[in-house]
Design a protein that fits this description.
Structural class: alpha/beta
Strand order of the largest sheet: 2-1-3-5-6-4
CATH class of the largest domain: Alpha Beta
Order of helices and strands: EHEHEEHEEHEHEHEHEEHEHH
CATH architecture of the largest domain: 3-Layer(aba) Sandwich
Number of helices: 10
Number of strands: 12
CATH topology of the largest domain: Rossmann fold
Strand content: 15-25%
Number of domains: 2
Helix content: 40-55%
Largest sheet: 6 strands, mixed
Length: about 280
Protein backbone atom coordinates (compact mmCIF):
# COMPACT_ATOMS: atom_id res chain seq x y z
CA UNK A 1 0.00 0.00 0.00
CA UNK A 2 1.34 3.44 -0.93
CA UNK A 3 2.28 5.48 2.14
CA UNK A 4 0.94 9.02 2.24
CA UNK A 5 2.77 12.02 3.67
CA UNK A 6 1.97 15.70 3.36
CA UNK A 7 2.45 19.31 4.35
CA UNK A 8 -0.39 20.79 6.40
CA UNK A 9 -0.78 24.56 6.27
CA UNK A 10 -2.70 27.47 4.79
CA UNK A 11 -1.97 29.33 1.53
CA UNK A 12 1.11 27.16 0.91
CA UNK A 13 1.03 26.72 -2.85
CA UNK A 14 4.61 28.06 -3.02
CA UNK A 15 6.03 25.13 -1.03
CA UNK A 16 8.93 23.03 -2.29
CA UNK A 17 8.43 20.24 0.25
CA UNK A 18 6.85 17.73 -2.19
CA UNK A 19 9.94 17.93 -4.42
CA UNK A 20 12.20 17.15 -1.46
CA UNK A 21 10.34 14.19 -0.05
CA UNK A 22 9.32 12.66 -3.36
CA UNK A 23 13.01 12.80 -4.40
CA UNK A 24 13.98 10.94 -1.21
CA UNK A 25 11.24 8.34 -1.72
CA UNK A 26 12.43 7.73 -5.28
CA UNK A 27 16.09 7.42 -4.26
CA UNK A 28 15.24 4.81 -1.63
CA UNK A 29 12.57 3.00 -3.70
CA UNK A 30 9.89 3.73 -1.12
CA UNK A 31 6.29 3.38 -2.27
CA UNK A 32 5.11 6.74 -0.95
CA UNK A 33 3.64 10.06 -2.05
CA UNK A 34 3.89 13.53 -0.55
CA UNK A 35 0.98 15.98 -0.91
CA UNK A 36 0.19 19.61 -0.12
CA UNK A 37 -2.71 19.76 2.34
CA UNK A 38 -4.01 23.33 2.30
CA UNK A 39 -6.77 23.64 4.91
CA UNK A 40 -8.71 26.76 5.99
CA UNK A 41 -8.57 27.34 9.76
CA UNK A 42 -12.35 26.98 10.06
CA UNK A 43 -12.12 23.45 8.65
CA UNK A 44 -8.99 22.23 10.44
CA UNK A 45 -10.56 20.07 13.14
CA UNK A 46 -12.95 18.38 10.73
CA UNK A 47 -10.25 17.69 8.10
CA UNK A 48 -7.75 16.38 10.63
CA UNK A 49 -9.92 13.36 11.40
CA UNK A 50 -9.70 12.33 7.75
CA UNK A 51 -6.00 13.19 7.47
CA UNK A 52 -5.01 11.19 10.57
CA UNK A 53 -6.83 8.14 9.19
CA UNK A 54 -5.09 8.19 5.80
CA UNK A 55 -1.62 9.64 6.33
CA UNK A 56 1.52 8.12 7.85
CA UNK A 57 3.27 11.43 8.48
CA UNK A 58 2.81 15.18 8.23
CA UNK A 59 4.90 18.28 8.09
CA UNK A 60 3.17 21.30 9.60
CA UNK A 61 3.69 24.94 8.64
CA UNK A 62 2.07 28.37 8.99
CA UNK A 63 -0.33 28.82 10.77
CA UNK A 64 -0.68 25.43 12.48
CA UNK A 65 2.67 24.66 14.18
CA UNK A 66 1.28 25.51 17.61
CA UNK A 67 -2.40 24.72 17.01
CA UNK A 68 -1.67 21.14 15.90
CA UNK A 69 -0.32 20.16 19.32
CA UNK A 70 -3.75 19.84 20.95
CA UNK A 71 -4.71 17.14 18.44
CA UNK A 72 -1.68 14.93 19.17
CA UNK A 73 -1.19 12.10 21.65
CA UNK A 74 2.45 12.72 22.47
CA UNK A 75 5.30 15.19 21.95
CA UNK A 76 9.03 14.61 21.80
CA UNK A 77 10.91 16.42 24.55
CA UNK A 78 12.27 19.10 22.23
CA UNK A 79 8.86 19.74 20.66
CA UNK A 80 7.46 20.16 24.18
CA UNK A 81 10.15 22.68 25.16
CA UNK A 82 9.85 24.62 21.90
CA UNK A 83 6.06 24.60 22.10
CA UNK A 84 5.69 24.04 18.36
CA UNK A 85 5.45 21.00 16.07
CA UNK A 86 6.46 20.86 12.42
CA UNK A 87 6.53 17.06 12.01
CA UNK A 88 3.97 14.43 13.01
CA UNK A 89 4.37 10.65 12.92
CA UNK A 90 1.05 8.83 12.69
CA UNK A 91 0.98 5.21 13.82
CA UNK A 92 -0.82 3.82 16.85
CA UNK A 93 -0.19 7.27 18.30
CA UNK A 94 0.11 10.73 16.77
CA UNK A 95 3.56 11.94 17.85
CA UNK A 96 4.67 15.55 17.37
CA UNK A 97 8.30 16.47 16.77
CA UNK A 98 10.24 19.60 15.76
CA UNK A 99 12.83 19.25 13.00
CA UNK A 100 13.17 23.03 12.50
CA UNK A 101 15.67 22.77 15.36
CA UNK A 102 17.82 20.33 13.39
CA UNK A 103 17.43 22.42 10.23
CA UNK A 104 18.76 25.56 11.89
CA UNK A 105 21.51 23.79 13.84
CA UNK A 106 22.93 21.92 10.84
CA UNK A 107 22.74 25.03 8.64
CA UNK A 108 24.77 26.99 11.21
CA UNK A 109 27.24 24.11 11.50
CA UNK A 110 27.63 24.05 7.71
CA UNK A 111 28.91 27.65 7.89
CA UNK A 112 30.95 27.06 11.08
CA UNK A 113 28.83 29.56 13.02
CA UNK A 114 29.01 29.38 16.81
CA UNK A 115 26.29 31.21 18.76
CA UNK A 116 27.97 30.91 22.17
CA UNK A 117 28.27 34.26 23.91
CA UNK A 118 26.62 36.16 21.06
CA UNK A 119 23.63 38.52 20.97
CA UNK A 120 20.80 37.10 18.86
CA UNK A 121 17.71 38.71 17.38
CA UNK A 122 14.70 36.64 16.32
CA UNK A 123 12.17 38.34 14.04
CA UNK A 124 8.78 36.67 14.48
CA UNK A 125 7.06 34.72 17.25
CA UNK A 126 5.55 31.69 15.50
CA UNK A 127 6.72 28.09 15.42
CA UNK A 128 9.93 28.75 13.48
CA UNK A 129 10.84 31.59 15.85
CA UNK A 130 10.37 29.27 18.83
CA UNK A 131 12.73 26.76 17.26
CA UNK A 132 15.31 29.52 16.70
CA UNK A 133 15.06 30.67 20.32
CA UNK A 134 15.68 27.12 21.47
CA UNK A 135 18.68 26.69 19.15
CA UNK A 136 20.21 29.91 20.50
CA UNK A 137 19.54 28.81 24.08
CA UNK A 138 21.15 25.40 23.47
CA UNK A 139 24.11 27.10 21.84
CA UNK A 140 24.58 29.32 24.93
CA UNK A 141 23.88 32.68 23.30
CA UNK A 142 24.48 35.64 25.62
CA UNK A 143 21.19 37.36 24.80
CA UNK A 144 18.08 36.37 22.84
CA UNK A 145 15.65 39.10 21.77
CA UNK A 146 12.33 38.43 20.05
CA UNK A 147 10.67 41.13 17.96
CA UNK A 148 7.21 40.55 16.48
CA UNK A 149 4.46 42.68 14.98
CA UNK A 150 2.06 41.40 17.63
CA UNK A 151 3.62 42.04 21.02
CA UNK A 152 1.03 39.83 22.72
CA UNK A 153 2.15 36.84 20.67
CA UNK A 154 5.76 37.55 21.58
CA UNK A 155 4.77 37.73 25.23
CA UNK A 156 3.11 34.30 24.88
CA UNK A 157 6.40 32.94 23.55
CA UNK A 158 8.30 34.47 26.47
CA UNK A 159 5.85 33.05 29.00
CA UNK A 160 6.11 29.59 27.45
CA UNK A 161 9.92 29.51 27.63
CA UNK A 162 9.94 30.78 31.22
CA UNK A 163 8.52 27.37 32.24
CA UNK A 164 11.84 25.86 31.11
CA UNK A 165 14.05 28.60 32.61
CA UNK A 166 14.85 30.01 29.18
CA UNK A 167 15.14 33.79 29.23
CA UNK A 168 13.84 35.77 26.26
CA UNK A 169 13.66 39.56 25.91
CA UNK A 170 10.74 41.12 24.04
CA UNK A 171 11.11 44.31 22.00
CA UNK A 172 8.43 46.12 19.97
CA UNK A 173 8.46 45.65 16.20
CA UNK A 174 9.19 49.30 15.51
CA UNK A 175 12.48 48.95 17.43
CA UNK A 176 13.71 46.02 15.31
CA UNK A 177 16.29 48.00 13.33
CA UNK A 178 17.75 49.49 16.50
CA UNK A 179 18.11 46.02 18.09
CA UNK A 180 19.47 44.56 14.84
CA UNK A 181 22.34 47.08 14.98
CA UNK A 182 23.27 45.72 18.41
CA UNK A 183 22.95 42.03 17.45
CA UNK A 184 25.59 39.58 16.27
CA UNK A 185 23.15 37.08 14.79
CA UNK A 186 19.79 37.90 13.18
CA UNK A 187 17.21 35.38 12.01
CA UNK A 188 14.06 36.23 10.07
CA UNK A 189 11.25 33.84 11.03
CA UNK A 190 8.48 35.94 9.49
CA UNK A 191 7.06 35.38 5.98
CA UNK A 192 8.36 38.81 4.89
CA UNK A 193 10.30 38.31 1.65
CA UNK A 194 8.41 35.24 0.42
CA UNK A 195 8.02 35.58 -3.34
CA UNK A 196 8.72 39.31 -3.01
CA UNK A 197 11.44 41.95 -2.79
CA UNK A 198 10.47 42.98 0.75
CA UNK A 199 12.91 42.90 3.65
CA UNK A 200 12.07 43.09 7.37
CA UNK A 201 15.15 45.27 8.07
CA UNK A 202 16.85 48.39 6.78
CA UNK A 203 20.05 47.60 4.88
CA UNK A 204 22.04 50.05 6.99
CA UNK A 205 21.70 47.98 10.20
CA UNK A 206 23.80 45.13 8.77
CA UNK A 207 27.59 45.08 8.70
CA UNK A 208 30.41 42.62 8.08
CA UNK A 209 30.50 41.43 11.68
CA UNK A 210 27.01 39.92 11.59
CA UNK A 211 25.40 36.62 10.69
CA UNK A 212 22.04 36.93 8.93
CA UNK A 213 19.71 33.94 8.58
CA UNK A 214 16.44 33.86 6.66
CA UNK A 215 13.88 31.07 7.10
CA UNK A 216 12.21 32.23 3.88
CA UNK A 217 13.39 29.91 1.10
CA UNK A 218 11.61 31.16 -1.98
CA UNK A 219 13.52 32.98 -3.32
CA UNK A 220 16.58 31.25 -1.91
CA UNK A 221 18.48 34.52 -1.71
CA UNK A 222 15.94 36.99 -0.39
CA UNK A 223 16.32 40.74 -0.40
CA UNK A 224 17.43 40.53 3.24
CA UNK A 225 20.19 38.03 2.43
CA UNK A 226 21.36 39.87 -0.68
CA UNK A 227 21.58 43.12 1.29
CA UNK A 228 23.47 41.35 4.07
CA UNK A 229 25.92 39.69 1.67
CA UNK A 230 26.58 43.00 -0.09
CA UNK A 231 27.62 44.48 3.26
CA UNK A 232 29.95 41.60 4.07
CA UNK A 233 27.78 39.67 6.53
CA UNK A 234 27.77 35.87 6.67
CA UNK A 235 24.42 34.58 5.36
CA UNK A 236 22.47 31.37 5.90
CA UNK A 237 19.64 30.73 3.45
CA UNK A 238 16.24 29.21 4.13
CA UNK A 239 16.54 26.56 1.43
CA UNK A 240 19.45 24.95 3.27
CA UNK A 241 17.39 24.96 6.49
CA UNK A 242 14.37 23.56 4.62
CA UNK A 243 16.35 20.63 3.22
CA UNK A 244 17.94 19.73 6.54
CA UNK A 245 14.64 19.85 8.44
CA UNK A 246 12.94 17.77 5.72
CA UNK A 247 15.64 15.07 5.83
CA UNK A 248 15.28 14.99 9.62
CA UNK A 249 11.53 14.44 9.14
CA UNK A 250 12.21 11.51 6.79
CA UNK A 251 14.44 10.02 9.48
CA UNK A 252 11.68 10.44 12.09
CA UNK A 253 9.07 8.83 9.83
CA UNK A 254 11.07 6.15 8.02
CA UNK A 255 14.46 5.82 9.70
CA UNK A 256 16.34 7.17 6.67
CA UNK A 257 19.71 8.53 7.78
CA UNK A 258 20.51 11.96 6.30
CA UNK A 259 23.75 12.18 4.36
CA UNK A 260 25.67 14.77 2.39
CA UNK A 261 24.90 12.77 -0.77
CA UNK A 262 21.18 12.95 -0.04
CA UNK A 263 21.39 16.67 0.76
CA UNK A 264 23.19 17.35 -2.52
CA UNK A 265 20.71 15.32 -4.56
CA UNK A 266 17.76 17.23 -3.11
CA UNK A 267 19.54 20.58 -3.51
CA UNK A 268 20.10 19.88 -7.22
CA UNK A 269 16.37 19.22 -7.68
CA UNK A 270 15.44 22.47 -5.93
CA UNK A 271 18.03 24.89 -7.30
CA UNK A 272 16.00 26.08 -10.28
CA UNK A 273 12.67 25.93 -8.45
CA UNK A 274 13.76 28.22 -5.62
CA UNK A 275 15.36 30.79 -7.98
Amino acid sequence: MTLLFGLLGRNIGYTLSPYIHNTVFKMYNIDAEYHVIDVPESELEEKLKYIFERYTGLNVTIPYKITIMKYLDELTREAEIVGAVNTVKIDNKKIGHNTDIVGIELSLKRKNIDVKGRDCLVLGAGGAARAAVYVFYKGEARRVVVCNRSRSRAEELKKHFEKYDIDVEIVDWDKRNEIARQSDIIINCTPVGTLSEESPLDTTVIDSGKVVIDMVYRPRYTRLLRDAASRGAVIVDGLTILIYQALAADKFWLGIEPSEELFNAVERVLEDLAW
